[in-house]
Amino acid sequence: MSPSTSFSAAPSILISAVLLLSSIATTSAFNITLLLEKYPDFSEFNSLLSQTHLADDINRRKTITILAITNDRIGEISGKPEDVQKRILSNHVVLDYFDVLKLNKLKDSKTVLTTLFQATGIADEQQGFLNVVHSKDGSIAFGSAMKGAPIDSKLEGSVASQPYNISVLSISHPIIAPGIDGTLSPVSAPPPKAPAHKVPPPAESPEEEDAADAPTTDAAAPSPVDAPSVAPSPDSPPADDDANQSPPPKNAAGKSWFLVYHLG
Ligand SMILES: *[C@@H]1O[C@H](CO)[C@@H](O)[C@H](O)[C@H]1NC(C)=O
Ligand SMILES: *[C@@H]1O[C@H](CO)[C@@H](O)[C@H](O)[C@H]1NC(C)=O
Q: What is the pLDDT of residues 32-59, one digit of tens each?
């Protein structure tokens, strides 16, 4: 009696198990869109993540931190073209888990964070990295790791967190890395040679060679952020390390892309 009952139940148990396993395989640990929907102050930031499809990139990650901006301060980003918005916003997605507690523990070390923008391979120089500074008064601020960029985007608090999968932190205003929005080129602009620029530049134009040489020159110069890395923290799982280093060829490609963008 009882053996035959459990035997007939086995197939449906098996089917349930298969369905459960397949749903685990296709569902991420979190859904940033759903998570932010609970916080109306961040509704514009949330829609921008969806519009630029960054939400999908974020949901595919396992350990991530989002530096979010409230509706009243996002104007600086929302007025820009969508490709620029995407670049700027991907620089607000840190490829490791940081909550306020963990950031406070980093007080005595110089910390450089790797962002999703670095993972795209189009970041120029240090554009894909962020610096974190701790002030004497206990406040924490973020800024682009580009040389001379202001580090004044203050940490205002935690919005949501699911340790150690995802953390959403609120910051005082957008971080706009020099050159990322196309208003300022980090490579020195070529001297104005009006006739030369009227014709479309050939693939091997001298300007492009200059631009491709630029990273080498910069790399030789002493820089406080020569070797960007996320400071190891004893209590966290390893960072997504597929994007900690952008290979030089990709960087060079990004550089030419950047120049073309400016000439065009
Ligand atoms: C995340 O949530 C949004 C809003 O409910 C939904 O439209 C989207 O399909 C979800 N994404 C995933 C990967 O489940
Ligand atoms: C983090 O993700 C793992 C694996 O996807 C999941 O098992 C765990 O419940 C998640 N943690 C939280 C706090 O949601």
A: 999 999 999 999 999 999 999 999 999 9
